[in-house]
Amino acid sequence: xxxxxxxxxxxxxxxxxxxxxxxxxxxxxxxxxxxxxxxxxxxxxxxxxxxxxxxxxxxxxxxxxxxxxxxxxxxxxxxxxxxxxxxxxxxxxxxxxxxxxxxxxxxxxxxxxxxxxxxxxxxxxxxxxxxxxxxxxxxxxxxxxxxxxxxxxxxxxxxxxxxxxxxxxxxxxxxxxxxxxxxxxxxxxxxxxxxxxxxxxxxxxxx
Length: 207
Fold this sequence. Notes:
By secondary structure, the chain is α+β, with helices and mostly antiparallel strands. It contains two helices and 13 strands. 17% of the residues lie in helices and 41% in strands.
């Protein structure tokens, strides 16, 4: 019979393996958004948007923030050409000239140490870490050249474990419903602390 020590070691090894997988997948997306070449130009309905790790002071609790973009209309779309000649072609072959009307950011905020990544930010807060996860705020900014505008979400949902149940991980889905927005614009979702301090940013752009 397996003793409790061996069970704990196997569970720890499994968590480390999952953390490595998450870090590898998300860091690939993060590097692509930073301007490095992305050899797979095919869009998926769910695309990793990056991650960040911060520490809360004075408790010392670490918070992992992981972003995911969800947009069913982009499944199978591809970017063709580069530079001023670049275009987005849908899976059925027609050119996409505007962002899909509906898309979401899914943001996971977790106190679990599943990401093997260094801490990038220190945040001072009077909130208990579990309460901190429940009070995150979100701002979407759209950039067109030097111009910027703020877009309010259509809704913000907390999915998974109900808010009234104490838990060390929260998953938000921030939904947007846009008017005609050219594919040349860029979106940046800012994740804010309960006190309004920016924690991280997740990018969404097509060209």
